[in-house]
């Protein structure tokens, strides 16, 4: 039976998940398991393996899918335990390193402003856009990532060339820059040889042979396997050759190419003939019979390395580099016995196929279904081909596929020799020789038991400085029965010798014929700098690739990449298009500046109908985007009932409900009339409202006053006690505060109060104690001066002193005055409103004016008053998220670590984590509101809807929790996340407005 577990928004790189899958498949009771991200390509793999379930089909690209085939449901728990342990171990290993870790390219560049190289190892379906971003930031690129389209490769390499940068790859498996090994690379001593090649085991074979011969390599610049394709036109190879020509420590240039397009190959040779340094070139598949000028043409990778060594030591190039094979073959294998090659390296496989085909005249190489050669029973397979690695680790990491193939070939009575490579280096299996030894012994024994001879012939590609031991790997293989040679070419020659075929190489003469030299282009400053310094790397993807960089003197920052926009291809294209529009940044900066420069002052407290015209009729304002009474949830309906009773439009609950249901009372969002309302947000004409003026431009905003907590109107309560309190606020509290504020010329400066209170531990949504006390400190002397009844003075001051949350409503009006001023900029992607009506969460962004973008609202997580639980909670409600819109509330959780336990967010570390996370979706910081517990950094400012969509991080909102039934009131407090869909809709609409559609 298939069991599916979806871990939402839980990105891990594919190599980690492949290794995890292999580990899980060894557990007792697991028939089959696959763990992958929910991309379309991975779902195809699930389908092909019979593991695609409905739950898996519905998963997003940023979701981790675990599908287990087992007869025992209890096994699933074991799988989850082992998965968590595996991934937690990775996290622990990461924290023990000294590598800085960030979550965006911008953050990586802040951490390492002088970075000069981006190393990519992310899924190919997302890579082109990410590589382009790196190039636009002026970074050279090393793309271990493959599965990038040819069109994208051409486009990106042209861009890189125009910017004077190198794009190494895609499918760049190995490289060395200034003697620093990159990706799947061997540790080779520094030297005077520079290499440009197809970035895989070809480079590894040549560099390791050079190392074993006593030489060294300063650069091995990978190009990717298609660089000499007709379309790509060797863009990277040309620029790299020019770079090495102008690199003083490089005395010899080596070029390694898979079979190239003839025109491109000839142009590269023409370029090489024009450089001043001696060159060794190998074009796999060619069998050169002479050298020309300063270009020495090799047939095998071993010959390439040996010619390079002689040139590097100023020795004459020999006519032939073929060594004797010392192994004595007593009885050659019979004619029907064939050679099978099982390679983890594509270039080594190509070389083996070429040499076997040439010796036996088999007609050349093929490239089909993983085969390099498949003729007359002779087969050479590249196990690193996509068909073998889809959803599985590369064979350099995981031996399983090769083990299966060894068993298969060993049972074939026509198999006489099995050829294989054992590739060492960073990223490879820690002991591949040991992992293969048992199946090799088993296969040799099986053949003997069946009366036939089976030979294993291999080579170890590596050096003694590699993480795995070169000598020990040879010893293990030889002990298992493998005939080990010191190069791949020699191993192939031995395999042929076992068949009674002596491989020969004709002598090559040097022809000094005249060649017309071309004028060489100048090397770009970026490439010259890269080749003349230690690489400073932003590692984007597999974290272990930082190991070799730091160990050998390079610098690196780890960018913990995950798919932008949850992997949604349409949104990715829209975001990339918006990123290129400079006017958006200018508009966003203008919005931010208006927010930062705002000057909010509390001017008065007045009846709502005196400043909001529509309230002179039977109209109620409500929180959130537009909604009608029948669609309101319990607490908002309860607030409406309370308002009707307060206004005297009905005498009891039943009359009030009938009136509201009749349609006689009209409704409007507070936000449509320059107002905001907490929770239900219900505001009626005779309710007193706070008047806040933004003196930057005269924008005015309104909000009702805070009633306290518990059974209050805003939480849907409407008892006689609630209504009587509202009448007292209308008749006493409002007029007293109005008279007091009128004594304060110019109003009360709220920025000063906010700045003080944030340093005292307020975040202005759940915690307002300091701000309320500062307000009381300012208003009390003014109240005392009033010529009114002392009892009224006492009652008002006592109410303010007892109502810790009184400043919340002032802060809400402040936020509204700030955003309505900023909303006068009608371009950009800054979020200018966030609000909820109990059913929908609504946002507005600067570039879309008054248009609402909504999605179903979430229910808060938090702590509950005694006797209540999550089952009693209403979905989130209220305009109070205006506080988060201007950067406080949940956005500034770090300012009020004391409140985090109350809202269910944990402790200080959680508060710090939340604010750091909120910073990732914000454009700037408000220096006016400095937070001591955040190293005095200003509160977050300017939520960018693009960043929300890009990261999948949605604003966290501190909130009260209302009972879902009308009349009960507040039952707790907590936090809630804004739904991502609002921001996605806003970005799609804005893109459409700008003429961007996909």
UniProtKB/TrEMBL annotation:
Occurrences of domain ATP-citrate synthase/succinyl-CoA ligase C-terminal (ranges): 342-496
InterPro entries recorded: AllG-like, CoA-bd, NAD(P)-bd_dom_sf, OXTCase_su_AllG_h-dom, SUCC_ACL_C, Succinyl-CoA_synth-like
Superkingdom, taxonomy of origin: Bacteria
Coiled-coil residue spans: none
One Pfam match: AllG
Matching NCBIfam families: PRK06091.1 (NF004760)
Name the record gives this protein: Acyl-CoA synthetase FdrA
């Amino acid at each position: 039976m298939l069991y599916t577990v979806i871990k939402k928004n839980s990105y891990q790189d594919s190599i980690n998940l492949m290794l995890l899958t292999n580990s899980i498949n060894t557990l007792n009771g697991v028939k089959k398991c696959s763990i992958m991200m929910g991309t379309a390509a991975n779902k195809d793999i699930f389908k092909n393996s019979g593991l695609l379930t409905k739950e898996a089909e519905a998963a997003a690209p940023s979701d981790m899918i675990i599908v287990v085939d087992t007869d025992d449901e209890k096994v699933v728990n074991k799988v989850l335990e082992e998965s968590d342990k595996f991934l937690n171990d990775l996290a622990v290993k990461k924290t023990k390193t000294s590598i800085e870790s960030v979550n965006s390219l911008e953050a990586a560049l802040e951490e390492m402003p002088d970075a000069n190289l981006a190393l990519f190892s992310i899924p190919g379906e997302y890579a082109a856009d990410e590589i382009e971003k790196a190039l636009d930031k002026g970074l050279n690129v090393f793309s271990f990532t493959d599965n990038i389209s040819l069109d994208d490769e051409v486009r990106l390499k042209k861009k890189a060339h125009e910017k004077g940068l190198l794009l190494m790859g895609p499918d760049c498996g190995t490289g060395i820059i200034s003697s620093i090994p990159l990706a799947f690379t061997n540790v080779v001593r520094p030297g005077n040889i520079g290499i440009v090649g197809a970035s895989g085991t070809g480079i590894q074979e040549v560099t390791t042979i050079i190392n074993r011969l006593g030489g060294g390599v300063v650069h091995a610049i990978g190009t990717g396997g298609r660089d000499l394709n007709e379309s790509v036109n060797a863009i990277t190879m040309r620029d790299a050759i020019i770079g090495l020509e102008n690199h003083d420590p490089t005395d010899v240039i080596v070029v390694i190419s898979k079979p190239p397009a003839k025109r491109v190959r000839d142009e590269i040779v023409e370029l090489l003939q024009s450089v001043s340094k001696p060159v060794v070139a190998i074009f796999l598949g060619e069998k050169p019979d002479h050298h020309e000028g300063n270009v020495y043409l090799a047939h095998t990778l071993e010959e390439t390395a040996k010619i390079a060594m002689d040139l590097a030591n100023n020795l004459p190039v020999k006519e032939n580099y073929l060594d004797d094979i010392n192994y004595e073959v007593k009885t050659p294998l019979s004619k029907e016995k064939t050679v099978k090659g099982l390679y983890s390296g594509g270039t080594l496989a190509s070389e083996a196929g070429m040499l076997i085909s040439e010796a036996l005249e088999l007609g050349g190489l093929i490239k089909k279904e993983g085969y390099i050669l498949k003729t007359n029973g002779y087969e050479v397979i590249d196990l690193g081909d996509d068909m073998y690695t889809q959803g599985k680790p590369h064979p350099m990491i995981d031996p399983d596929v090769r083990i299966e193939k060894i068993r298969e070939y060993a049972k074939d009575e026509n198999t006489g020799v099995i050829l294989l490579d054992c590739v060492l280096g960073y990223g490879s299996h820690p002991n591949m020789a040991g992992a293969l030894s048992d199946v090799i012994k088993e296969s040799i024994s099986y053949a003997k038991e069946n009366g036939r001879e089976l030979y294993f012939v291999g080579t170890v590609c590596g050096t003694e400085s590699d993480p795995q031991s070169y000598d020990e790997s040879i010893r293990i293989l030889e002990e298992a029965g493998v005939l080990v040679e010191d190069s791949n070419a020699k191993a192939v020659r031995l395999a042929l010798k076992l068949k009674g075929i002596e491989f020969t190489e004709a002598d090559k003469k040097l022809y000094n014929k005249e060649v017309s030299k071309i004028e060489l282009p100048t090397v770009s400053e970026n490439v010259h700098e890269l080749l003349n310094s230690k690489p400073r790397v932003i590692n984007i993807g597999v974290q272990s690739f930082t190991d070799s960089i730091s160990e050998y003197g390079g610098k690196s920052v780890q960018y913990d990449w995950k798919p932008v926009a949850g992997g949604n291809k349409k949104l990715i294209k829209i975001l990339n298009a918006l990123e290129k529009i400079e006017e958006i940044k200018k508009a966003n900066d203008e919005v931010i500046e208006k927010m930062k420069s705002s000057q909010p002052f509390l001017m008065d407290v007045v009846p709502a109908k005196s400043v909001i015209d529509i309230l002179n009729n039977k109209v109620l304002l409500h929180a959130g985007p537009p909604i009608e009474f029948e669609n309101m949830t319990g607490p908002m309906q309860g607030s409406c009932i309370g308002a009707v009773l307060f206004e005297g439009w009905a005498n009891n609950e039943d009359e009030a409900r009938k009136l509201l249901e009749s349609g006689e009372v009209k409704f409007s969002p507070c936000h449509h009339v320059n107002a905001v309302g907490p929770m239900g947000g219900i505001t009626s004409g005779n309710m007193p409202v706070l008047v806040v003026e933004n003196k930057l431009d005269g924008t005015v905003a309104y909000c009702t006053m805070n009633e306290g907590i518990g059974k209050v109107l805003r939480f849907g309560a409407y008892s006689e006690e609630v209504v009587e309190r509202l009448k007292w606020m209308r008749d006493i509290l409002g007029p007293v505060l109005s008279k007091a504020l009128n004594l304060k010329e110019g109003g009360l400066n709220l920025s000063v109060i906010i700045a003080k209170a944030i340093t005292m531990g307020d975040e202005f949504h759940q915690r307002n104690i300091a701000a309320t006390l500062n307000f009381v400190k300012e208003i009390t002397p003014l109240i005392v001066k009033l010529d009114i009844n002392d009892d009224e003075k006492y009652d008002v001051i006592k109410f303010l002193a007892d109502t810790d949350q009184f400043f919340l409503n002032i802060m809400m009006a402040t936020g509204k005055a700030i955003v309505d001023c900023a909303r006068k900029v009608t371009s950009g992607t800054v979020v200018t409103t966030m609000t909820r009506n109990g059913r929908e969460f609504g946002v507005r962004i600067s570039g879309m004016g008054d248009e609402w973008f909504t999605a179903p609202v979430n229910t808060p997580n938090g702590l509950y008053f005694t006797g209540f639980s999550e089952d009693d909670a209403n979905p989130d409600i209220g305009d109070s998220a205006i506080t988060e819109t201007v950067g406080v509330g949940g956005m500034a959780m770090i300012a009020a670590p004391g409140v985090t336990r109350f809202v269910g967010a944990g402790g200080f570390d959680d508060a710090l984590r939340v604010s750091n996370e909120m910073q990732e979706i914000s454009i700037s910081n408000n220096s006016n509101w400095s937070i001591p517990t955040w190293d005095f950094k200003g509160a977050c400012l300017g939520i960018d809807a693009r960043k929300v969509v890009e990261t999948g991080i949605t604003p966290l909102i501190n909130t009260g929790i209302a009972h879902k039934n009308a009349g009960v009131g507040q039952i707790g407090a907590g936090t809630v996340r804004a739904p991502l869909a609002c921001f996605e809709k806003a970005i799609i609409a804005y893109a459409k407005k700008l003429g961007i559609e996909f």
